[in-house]
Amino acid sequence: MRINVPRIKSIRDQVYEGLKAMIVTGQLPQGAKLQENDLAELFKVSRTPVREALKLLREDGLVESPGGKGLFVRVLTPQNVTDIFQVRRLLEEFALRQAIAHLDPQRERRLRELQSQFPPFRGSYDNLEEYIQLDTELHTYLIDCSDNLFLRELTGRIYDILQPVRVLSLCDRQRYEASIEEHQQIIQGMLDHDPDRASQVLLEHLREAEEMVLQVLRNQLPAPPETTPPEAGSPK
Questions:
Q1: DSSP 3-state of 225
Q2: Which of 105, 181, 110, 182 is nearest to 142 (CA)?
Q3: What per-residue string of b and e applies to 195-222 under the rule 16 or more CB within 10 Å gives b?
Q4: Which of 76, 129, 134, 199 is most buried, judged by most C-beta within 10 A?
Q5: β-strand 72-73 against 63-64: which pairing, if any?
């Protein structure tokens, strides 16, 4: 007789998943210092599973130790964002073309369901969190439809790192409205089995999202120190 024993998550895994969710959703903001004692008290566990969970989060790229002094929630720099979006464009275009090749009636129905959920967000900027969830759901579904397990793992890690600043790509009302239309066009290109058109819209969509995030991050950077021009005749 075969017995399926349910997998019981270790305390380390529970702390890891809890901390990861807090980082991805922004409850633990970028740059927040992570103290083992404080986290152990928060999760009502010893320091050992917290230390192990933080090690996993560091391997995921969600936690960093600048200068080797303490652990902090990773702060995404403009260069980080540029690098991430370069990889996203490569992986998601490949996934999109694979997904179109693997479409079947069931997947087409699911795409139409997703497509129908975008129009209600037009003209309404009050449900941004719900819209981001739908945005993430669509991009994740495209990856799932590629039927490539390793691609899912790669993009999943990238999405987790990028998620805390994802809202920045929609902080402009005009960009938000354009994003709704782009998502619908991507889906329509897939339903029409037109990988070139769908890919073109997808790549432009990701470029626009990247530029908006970069614009916001650059505006948040401290201004360079002002320099006083030397007086006439003084050494330079």
A1: coil
A2: 110
A3: beebbebbbebbebbbebbbbbbeeeee
A4: 199
A5: antiparallel
